[in-house]
């Protein structure tokens, strides 16, 4: 179910999508390794989990749902991409 906002239709996040964001907010407090927790909670491989998570954090709905977690995940993903491609991260905080 979605809601109309101006001319744009916003689609609510699914329970699964909200669970992914919640997991990212809290997984570190668990004693279980992250990859094991992903398999137990979502029945996904780690690769499948991150594929879904990365698609999710690009959505405006995810950003609206939990801006702090989504922005943190976007920054981490962007930093890993820069490192993977040999770029030096900007240390100015931008």
Nutshell version of this structure?
The termini are far apart.
| Low-confidence segments | 1-9
E-strand count: 2
Distance between the termini: 36 Å
The Rg value, from CA coordinates, equals 15 Å
The overall average pLDDT, rounded, is 85
Residues in helix, %: 55-70%
Count of helical regions: 5
Strand content: 5-15%
What kind of sheet is the major sheet?
A: 2 strands, antiparallel
Please list the strands of the largest sheet in the order they lie side by side: 1-2
Assembly classification = single chain
| Bulk shape | globular
Q: Could you give the order of the helices and strands?
A: EEHHHHH
Structural class: mainly alpha
Describe, in plain words, how this protein is organized in 3D.
The chain is mainly α and 94 residues long. It has one domain. 61% of the residues lie in helices and 9% in strands. It has five helices and two strands, in the order ββααααα. It has helices spanning 15-26, 34-42, 46-57, 60-65, 67-84, and strands spanning 2-5, 8-11. The protein has a two-stranded antiparallel ribbon. β1 and β2 (8-11) form a beta hairpin. The longest helix has 18 residues, at 67-84. It is globular. Mean pLDDT is 85; it is low at 1-9.
Question: Which key features would you list for this structure?
Answer:
mainly alpha; two-stranded antiparallel sheet; 9% strand; 94 residues; globular
Secondary structure: elements and pairs:
Layout: E1 2-5, E2 8-11, H1 15-26, H2 34-42, H3 46-57, H4 60-65, H5 67-84
Antiparallel strand pairs: 1-2
